[in-house]
Structure formats: structure tokens, C-alpha cells
Write a sequence for this structure.
């Protein structure tokens, strides 16, 4: 007779087993697990000797030499139709190419069933213990397992030894293969899993385990929370955010909100809105009404209130943002330093990108004017420093050391800041570089930020930085690249996600298509729906510039001129009339040339940029101007501004004069063009584009003789030898000839 008994299992009839063991006419044989050589032999018989030798080390490690588990892996291997070489060369079971470590072999349904069969065969206390080990994971210790299962230390030790001998656990009490842990968890009743996770969270929190580990158990338990759990979940959310996992952080905060009330709930909602924004700006909208109400009664910190205001601004809810910020300064007669820093940051931010809101806020809240001008302690605050540099650029007073300052801001922030603060401050610093005419430096920083782990975990920042990188490419004359980047930014989000910020990527893409001669695509893009109040922001300027450039390209010079004049009116009214942002004078002058008004173009190009920060005396209100731009929605002589425009147009356009002497060449050519009569200009333009005298005569309804007379006088006045020189002169003057 042959009896088989699991050595570590609790026998169903201990007395019968003892009687068999005491018989003198029988032998007791203890069967040890397979050695590595034994695993190689078993695998070699089924998959070939070479595979046996190659796979044996890893397979022995994950099965503990259990014949049942080894055979199960073989069946999974054969069932998947993979060759022996494939088992460790690609796919889930491949080696780690970076570390050279052997990865766990791919385990399928046969392996999972073998694990559960092993537990059934051992019986006793092993199944409840295996479930507890599966729930605790790497946190499992004999003491915690005793507390979680109530089996007592001796029972826990026996069960751990049995599971180790059976090839399920390592000597440290961890699962040898993740598929074994998954199989045990999947076979555990859902209510029991929730109970175990809830109890595990309590025990691990008492042990001082990390907030993230405890919070994961609370999340898996999905049950009613005790008060101690809320701060644990909040801390875990911050850890997850810093680790580049905003989705997990948001899940922790949503769970915490179920048990929070009062000020705790306000703070958690503000954090959750920021995390939702990190993933999708439109997802943050659901929290804004709650935050506006909380801010109105002073339940939000200054940082939380200003963050909510930024979300409102992005979504075009300007009145609510103005109210929120006015309430913020009116709540405390003596705000602390952190509040004053937030107020100063928001003031600079508004003046740079939301200037119309800044004007409304000044009119509405005298306290805002008082607070924004108060002295601050000499401390480094990255967002504030970056916003200061941007505001200086847009007011025409850039820091001479801006490239160095921007690098310092970005490097220090990346080293010390949390992801949201890091990306925000660094992107603003790089934007200051871009608007100051340092397009190449800005490009490098935008590319570096796009490779940042935090940015790669945030669709929102990924899309915004793509748009900024596209703008830098456009300014560097890389229209193809700019178009691809801008299209990628636009495709990442819906219109609701982009809010008023859509003016930047849409404007870049329209400009790129225009430079590339793809005018039909540019026209279709301009039919894209946009928020009407976008024209009250800096983003609207980019859109107006793009629409004007497109209109020039298709011959709508009057409409283009209207766009550029609107752009100029807004920039002068806001005190941001700097050509390195939008060289509207250059664009307007080109439109005027197309309209046959070279003298007017010359006067515009000869105008100096108004003194920094000085508002124009135009009677047109900026708000009315923005409204006019919205209803129409169905560079001065400054060398940097002209370089920006000329470089953007690129060498293939015939307008690529990027040197410092470009302005004088343009003005000289315009002067010479101004000497022509209107009739002579019309004839000269047609001759410059290669029309014969007969074609010119037919097109203008005049005689060939009259054409010849006009050309003779034109050659004499312009001091050119013939049609070729005439075409070159038109190009230098930027007067359209096609």
C-alpha cells in the first residue's frame, strides 16, 4: 500500500497517520522539491534540452521546485503557442534589458489554477494566511499576519513554512510570482477582501507605514472611513502627485472627501480641482462653483483662491475671477506674507496675459492696488520671480540678464519645487524668454520641460507646452515643425479644455499653414469655434496676428489691416505694446502696401514704439475693441521685433531679411514706391509678377501704349533697368506681387 501525505498539512485523522508511521514493516520517504537541475530535466523533456537549461534558473525560482507548478508553466507555455526562446526573450517573460535581471516567466490560467490546487491540497490555515499575505503584499510580517488573521504566532509560522515548501512563497514570506498573488486575491470573496484591506490599513497606519501604502489599502477597502484616514489620504495624494501619478492622487482625494467636512472639505476640493486640471481643464469646472462660494466667505487659503481664479480665467469666467480676487484682498486688513505673495503674483499674471481683467479689478477694488504695491520680504519665490520677468518683458522693460535669470528660476524650481509649482514657474520663465525675442533659448527650455516626468503624466501641461514650443518654432522660421506641434497640441484637447488659451495653438497653426501656402487649411482653421472673450487676453493677440497674416496672403488687405489695427489698439491700451510679442506695425505696413498706400505704410514703420507702459490716448476702449474682434471671428522699427517677423516668414517667402539693416532697406524701398502714381503702381505690380504688356492692358482695361508709358516712367522713378529689378524691389518693400 502507498500513502501520500503533505508534510506541513494538518491531517484529517492524526491518530490514523500516527498508527501508520509506527508500523515496523513500512518505510517513510520524504520527497523534496525539484532542484534546479530537476526543473531543467522536466522542462527539457517537454520543451527541449536547450530550453530546459536556459529556463531552469528562473523557473525554479518562481515555482520553488514544485512539480505541479513547473508542469503548469509548461502547459501555459505550450498553450500560448510561444517558442521556448520566446519565454525569456520578449513579452511579459523577458529579461530586463536595462538591469540584465531575469524577469518572471509569463504565467497563464494553468499556473493560477495550480496555485489554488496547491492551497486546497495543503488545507488547514494556509488559505486564510495566503489571502492575508496577498493583501499585505511586501508589508507582510509574521506579527502583522498574526494580527490580521488571528491564527497566533505558531500557526502563522507553520502556515508560512508550508506555503514556502509548496513553492508559493519565498523564505521571506512573499509570493514567488505576481500571478500567484493575483490568483489568491481573485479567489477571495469581495467582502472578505474589503475587510482584510480595511483591517490592514488600520494595522499599517499604527506601524507608521507610508501614507501611500495605507491609502492604497483604504482605497481597496472602499468602506466607511474613520477620521484618522482623511489626513493620511491627503498626504498620500501629495506623495502620488510628486511621484508623477496624478490619477492616483485624485482617487485618494475623492475618497477622503467622503469623510471630510468643514475646512477640511474646502481644502480637499481645492486640491482635487488642481489635480483634475492636471489631467483635463474641463474636469476642474465641476469644482469651481463650490470653490467660488468657499472663497467668498474666506474658507480658502490665498494660494487656493488664486489657483481657483486661474482656472476661472482659463475658462473665460472673468467676472467670477474678478469677484473672487477682490474678495481675497478685502478679507484681511493685514494679510500675511504668503497672501501678499499670491496677490503680487496674480497682479503680474493678470497684467501679462489677462490685462482686461486686471483693469476691471483695479477699478473694482482699491485695496487690490494698495496690496499689489506693498513691499515683500527678499525671499526667492519661483512663480513670483518668473511672473515678474514676464511682466517686465511685456511692459517694454526686460531684465538685461533675463536669459540667466530664467535659467536660475527653472533650475532652482526643478530641484526644489513640487510638480505643479515647478512646471508653472518654469513655463512662465521660458515664456518671458520667448516674448523677449530669445526664441532659441525658449525652445530649449520648452523641450526640456516636455521631457519632464511630471509633464508626461499631465495631458494639460503636455498640450500647453506643445503649443508654446510650436510658437518658438514658428519664430525660428520652422513652419513645418510649428504646424506639427500646434496640431498635436490642439488634438490633445477639446475646445472646452483649451478655453481662452486656444488662441495660441490655433494662431500658430494658422500662421504655419499660411507660410506653407496651405491657405484652404488656414481658412478652415479660422472657422474653428473660439470663445468670444478670448480677445480680452494675450492669447487673442496671437489669433488676430494669424488671421491677419492669412488675409494678406489671400489678398484681403483691408480686412488684414483691421486685424492688425485691433491688435495694436489692444496692446497699446494694455501697456504691452512690444514688437517681440506681436510685430503688428510691420504686418499693418505690409497690408497698407497691398492697398496701394506706401506713404501711410512708411509713416507707420517710422513711428517709434510708445514709451514703456504708457497707455495710448485712443478714445477706443479696449473692451469695445476686443468685442469688435470677437464679432469678426466667424513690428515696428524695433530690430528684435522685425527679426521675429522676418525669421517666421522664412527664406522661401521672399521676405527673409533678418539683419539689423532690414528696416532701413524697407523704408528706402517704400520711399521709392511712394513716388509712383496709383496707376503706375498697378501696372508695376503686374509687370513684377511676370505679366506681358498685353496681359496688363487687358487686366486694367487700358491700351498697350498706356502700359508702355507707365512702365517707362516707373523704371525712371525707381531707377531700375527692367522687370527683374522691379520684382526684386517689390520684394524688398514687402509689397505683394502675386
Amino acid at each position: 500500500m502507498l500513502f501520500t501525505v503533505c508534510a506541513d498539512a494538518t491531517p484529517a485523522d492524526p491518530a490514523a497517520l500516527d498508527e501508520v508511521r509506527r508500523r515496523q514493516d513500512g518505510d517513510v520517504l520524504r520527497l523534496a522539491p525539484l532542484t534546479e537541475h530537476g526543473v531543467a530535466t522536466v522542462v527539457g523533456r517537454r520543451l527541449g534540452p536547450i530550453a530546459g537549461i536556459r529556463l531552469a534558473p528562473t523557473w525554479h525560482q518562481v515555482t520553488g521546485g514544485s512539480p505541479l507548478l513547473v508542469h503548469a508553466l509548461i502547459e501555459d507555455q505550450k498553450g500560448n503557442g510561444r517558442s521556448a526562446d520566446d519565454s525569456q526573450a520578449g513579452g511579459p517573460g523577458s529579461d530586463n534589458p536595462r538591469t540584465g535581471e531575469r524577469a518572471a516567466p509569463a504565467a497563464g490560467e494553468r499556473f493560477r489554477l495550480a496555485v489554488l490546487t496547491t492551497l486546497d491540497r495543503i488545507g488547514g490555515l494556509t488559505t486564510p494566511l495566503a489571502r492575508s499575505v496577498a493583501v499585505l503584499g511586501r508589508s507582510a510580517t509574521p506579527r502583522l499576519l498574526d494580527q490580521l488573521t488571528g491564527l497566533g504566532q505558531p500557526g502563522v509560522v507553520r502556515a508560512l513554512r508550508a506555503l514556502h515548501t509548496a513553492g508559493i512563497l519565498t523564505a521571506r514570506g512573499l509570493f514567488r510570482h505576481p500571478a500567484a498573488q493575483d490568483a489568491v486575491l481573485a479567489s477571495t470573496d469581495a467582502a472578505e477582501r474589503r475587510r482584510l484591506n480595511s483591517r490592514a490599513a488600520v494595522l499599517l497606519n499604527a506601524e507608521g507605514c507610508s501614507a501611500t501604502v495605507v491609502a492604497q489599502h483604504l482605497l481597496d477597502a472602499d468602506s466607511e472611513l474613520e477620521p484618522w484616514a482623511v489626513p493620511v489620504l491627503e498626504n498620500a495624494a501629495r506623495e502620488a502627485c510628486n511621484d508623477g501619478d496624478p490619477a492616483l492622487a485624485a482617487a485618494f482625494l475623492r475618497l477622503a472627501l467622503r469623510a471630510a467636512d468643514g475646512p477640511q472639505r474646502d481644502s480637499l476640493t481645492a486640491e482635487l480641482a488642481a489635480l483634475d486640471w492636471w489631467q483635463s481643464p474641463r474636469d476642474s469646472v465641476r469644482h469651481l462653483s463650490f470653490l467660488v462660494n468657499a472663497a467668498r466667505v474666506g474658507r480658502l487659503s490665498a494660494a487656493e483662491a488664486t489657483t481657483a481664479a486661474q482656472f476661472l480665467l482659463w475658462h473665460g469666467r472673468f467676472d467670477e475671477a474678478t469677484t473672487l480676487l477682490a474678495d481675497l484682498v478685502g478679507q484681511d486688513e493685514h494679510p500675511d506674507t504668503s497672501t501678499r505673495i499670491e496677490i503680487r503674483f496674480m497682479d503680474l499674471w493678470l497684467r501679462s496675459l489677462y490685462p482686461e481683467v486686471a483693469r476691471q479689478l483695479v477699478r473694482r477694488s482699491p485695496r487690490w492696488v494698495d496690496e499689489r504695491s506693498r513691499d515683500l520680504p527678499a525671499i526667492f519665490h519661483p512663480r513670483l520671480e518668473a511672473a515678474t520677468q514676464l511682466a517686465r518683458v511685456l511692459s517694454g522693460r526686460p531684465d538685461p540678464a533675463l536669459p540667466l535669470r530664467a535659467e536660475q528660476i527653472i533650475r532652482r524650481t526643478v530641484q526644489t519645487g513640487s510638480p505643479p509649482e515647478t512646471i508653472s514657474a518654469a513655463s512662465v520663465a521660458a515664456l518671458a524668454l520667448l516674448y523677449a525675442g530669445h526664441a532659441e533659448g525658449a525652445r530649449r527650455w520648452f523641450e526640456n520641460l516636455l521631457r519632464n516626468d511630471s509633464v508626461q503624466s499631465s495631458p494639460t501641461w503636455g498640450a500647453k507646452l506643445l503649443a508654446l514650443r510650436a510658437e518658438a518654432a514658428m519664430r525660428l522660421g520652422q513652419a513645418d515643425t510649428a504646424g506639427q506641434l500646434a496640431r498635436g497640441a490642439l488634438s490633445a484637447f477639446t475646445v472646452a479644455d483649451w478655453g481662452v488659451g486656444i488662441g495660441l495653438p490655433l494662431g500658430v497653426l494658422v500662421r504655419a499653414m499660411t507660410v506653407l501656402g496651405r491657405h484652404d487649411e488656414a481658412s478652415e482653421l479660422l472657422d474653428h469655434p473660439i470663445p468670444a472673450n478670448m480677445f480680452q487676453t494675450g492669447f487673442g493677440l496671437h489669433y488676430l496676428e494669424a488671421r491677419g497674416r492669412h488675409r494678406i496672403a489671400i489678398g484681403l488687405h483691408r480686412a488684414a489691416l483691421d486685424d492688425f489695427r485691433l491688435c495694436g489698439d489692444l496692446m497699446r491700451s494694455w501697456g504691452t505694446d512690444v514688437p517681440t510679442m506681436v510685430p503688428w506695425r510691420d504686418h499693418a505696413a505690409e497690408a497698407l502696401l497691398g492697398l496701394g498706400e506706401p506713404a501711410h505704410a512708411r509713416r507707420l514703420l517710422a513711428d517709434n514704439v510708445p514709451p514703456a507702459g504708457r497707455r495710448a490716448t485712443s478714445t477706443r476702449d479696449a473692451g469695445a475693441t476686443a468685442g469688435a474682434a470677437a464679432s469678426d471671428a466667424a513690428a515696428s522699427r524695433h530690430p528684435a521685433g522685425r527679426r521675429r517677423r522676418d525669421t517666421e516668414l522664412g527664406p522661401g517667402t521672399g521676405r527673409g531679411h533678418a539683419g539689423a539693416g532690414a528696416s532701413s532697406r524697407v523704408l528706402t524701398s517704400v520711399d521709392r514706391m511712394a513716388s509712383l502714381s496709383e496707376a503706375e503702381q498697378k501696372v508695376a505690380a503686374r509687370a513684377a509678377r511676370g505679366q506681358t504688356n498685353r496681359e496688363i492692358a487687358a487686366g486694367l482695361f487700358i491700351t498697350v501704349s498706356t502700359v508702355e508709358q507707365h512702365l517707362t516712367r516707373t523704371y525712371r522713378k525707381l531707377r531700375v533697368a527692367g522687370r527683374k529689378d522691379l520684382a526684386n524691389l517689390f520684394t524688398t518693400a514687402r509689397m505683394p506681387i502675386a
Q: What stands out?
A: Residues 669-733 form a domain with the Arc Repressor Mutant, subunit A fold (CATH 1.10.10.10).
